[in-house]
Amino acid sequence: PRLLVIHGPNLNLLGAREPKYYGLTTLADINLALARRAEAAGVQLDSFQSNHEGALIERVHAARDEGVRYIIINPAAYTHTSVALRDAVAAAGIPFIEVHLSNVHAREPFRHRSYFSDLAIGVISGLGSEGYLLALEYLISKLKAD
Ligand code: DQA
């Protein structure tokens, strides 16, 4: 796949999980919308979710071998804790956009720090599930310009 979407822990519960922060859209809905948009643009896109740090790291390593061009990643709680996942994306050297459904800066102070933002092309936070589609739109135009 040319593009990879990575969803971190607890995002499998989207739709049911704290809708005040994360909305009512399920992860399957998000992945379907992304797949449809990518297909319409003639771009290959894969989605992956895991609740395990090591599985996320290994998916990033595999992306490097697959020649994935860009990653859209919502590291979820690992955003604020995982030096290991940060090191994996740095090692893979694949440019990425960091997405959060909620506005992490309007929430608890421990959510204000990200181990990813300084490495990201850019960050989208607080636009709900739309954020993923906006990130995809940007990458589609970037792929065309590359
Ligand atoms: C999140 C924000 C994180 O702080 C939180 O741990 C999540 C989801 C978001 O998409 O808003 O699990 O990444």
Automatic annotation (TrEMBL):
CDD domains found in the cross-reference section: DHQase_II
SUPFAM superfamilies, per database record: Type II 3-dehydroquinate dehydratase
EC number of the protein: 4.2.1.10
One GO molecular-function entry: 3-dehydroquinate dehydratase activity
Statement: the UniProt record of this protein carries the keyword GTP-binding: no
Any GO BP annotation: quinate catabolic process
Catalytic activity: 3-dehydroquinate = 3-dehydroshikimate + H2O
UniProt enzyme class: lyase
Catalytic residues of the enzyme: Y22 (proton acceptor), H100 (proton donor)
Short name of one Pfam family: DHquinase_II
Sorted UniProt keywords: Amino-acid biosynthesis, Aromatic amino acid biosynthesis, Lyase
Domain of life the protein comes from: Bacteria
InterPro entries, per database record: DHquinase_II, DHquinase_II_CS, DHquinase_II_sf
Metabolic or biological pathway: Metabolic intermediate biosynthesis; chorismate biosynthesis; chorismate from D-erythrose 4-phosphate and phosphoenolpyruvate: step 3/7
Protein residues bound to substrate: N74, H80, D87, L101, S102, R111
HAMAP family per record: AroQ
Known role: Catalyzes a trans-dehydration via an enolate intermediate.
Family: Belongs to the type-II 3-dehydroquinase family.
Protein name, per record: 3-dehydroquinate dehydratase
Native organism: Rhodocyclus tenuis (Rhodospirillum tenue)
Protein encoded by which gene: aroQ
